[in-house]
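Protocol step 4 of 6: structure prediction from sequence.
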Amino acid sequence: MNAIPTALPGVLILEPKVFGDDRGFFFESYNEGQFEQATGRAPRFVQDNHSRSIRGVVRGIHYQVVKPQAKLVRAGSGVILDVAVDLRRTSPTFGQHVAVELSADNKRQLWIPEGFGHGFAVLSETAELLYKTTEFWFPAHDRSLAWDDPALGIDWRVAEAILSDKDQKAPRLEQAELFD
């Protein structure tokens, strides 16, 4: 596994070793030992999620203020633009984001530690997102941040975003409940 640092310390692009031939391919999407060697930690994953969305869907920016989740994200099919936003008020990179294209073809994964918001946009006709979390989903602690907040400056690369009701009503960074 190759770990590539991003502009946000702790957020990493992970490239697995892929073994392929004319029959197809194989790769380990998660190996605790390799993950620990690449990132310096071996998280305990408690939940594995799978979503499917159509082109133009933007989901996020989501996070939990209590019982925060770290996430290991990849595209099982299609192409997504995956985004992590630093929501730790005391961080030197507070309010900054990274956006990484993840696809079934490139097999890249994004490691997003606690204290970051997460969102993605679907760039292909459909995409399936697979992600592991280090904490369970707790609806009472679930928060959203406005995907189109100008303070974040995220280019989602979609012509017209398709949003959930929750994401349409999400507050901007200046009004959101965040991490210290």
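Step 5 (inspection) to follow. The helical segments are 32-39, 165-168.
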